[in-house]
Fold this protein.
Amino acid sequence: MASLRLEDIARKTGVSRSTVSRVVNNHPSVSDEVRQRVLAAIEETGYRPHAAARTLASQRSATLGLILPQSVGAFFTDPYYPHLIKGIAQACNQHEYTLALFLVATQEDEQRVFPRLARQGLLDGVIIQSGHRGDQWIIGRMVDAKIPLVVAGRPFCYDNVSYVDVDNINAAYSAVVHLVRLGRRRVATITGPLASTVGIDRLEGYRKALVERGLTPDETLIVEGDFTEGGGFYAMQRLLPARPDAVFAASDIMALGAMRAIRQAGLRIPDDIAIVGFDDLPLASQAEVQLTTVRQPVVPLGIQTVELLLDIIENGIEPPRRIILGTELVVRASCGAYSTPRGEWPG
């Protein structure tokens, strides 16, 4: 059956595609029981590995690259990134791949790094954590060089790019609808950077929720943030004169900064201002007022990114693949769902 692929054998035997590949290429790190089960399935189905693919497999380095480009300025302070890397590293360990990390902070870094990434035999494939407009050129160079590539996050230009992301529009929509259902009418938002697809998509979900609930978006209730605690604090200070009764912050880190600004202004959470974040990082449940937030599967997203990249390495870069993961609204105290009716603004 010439149309069979490694994934068909993997599905039949209940193991990963990479495990089947290791059996086909006589890799030693497979248990005898699994090896016999895979070989039996190969014999039963008549699967024959492509000769060119086997040659390519023998030349692989078993190393994947993770590029964190210059837009990821908060890598060392935002707990989102360690969770993402945890998922990527777990999947690499499971499939016996080494992970090489590239921090690309400047244009000069990018110019130095790309020739190494493109060097034959160094990496089998590359993951880019992106979604920022300024990162598109390096993604484009990877695509043009036909390097197996997966982007963690929706890139701006994705016609020929495989990526894994969460459903940011519907996630933000559900958060804002929840606030409106609780009786909040002046719902503000602290967006992510609007030079990023995540910032754009979560703002779109915010606007969509207001319009569908019969509320007109008020531009004085929309302030751009930068995914930092300080950015959330200063964005909230800018919002306070517009007298919001609720805020949807596009990240937990910014939500915590906003909560600090609200308390500093002598206002109560959630009585005066309800707040919802995005991520459900551990700190969300550790805040003084536990944070209602959108839980996105950050570790599973990292795992899915590696799984998709291995599929591309094994079966080719065409057609591009896209995986969109769901989210969940986690209701805690900061939105007011469990509190008495809120008070009026002072003054």
Remarks:
- The longest helix spans residues 298-315.
- Confidence is low (pLDDT under 50) at residues 340-347.
- The chain has twelve helices and twelve strands.
- The chain has three domains: 6-58, 63-166+297-326, 168-296+330-335.
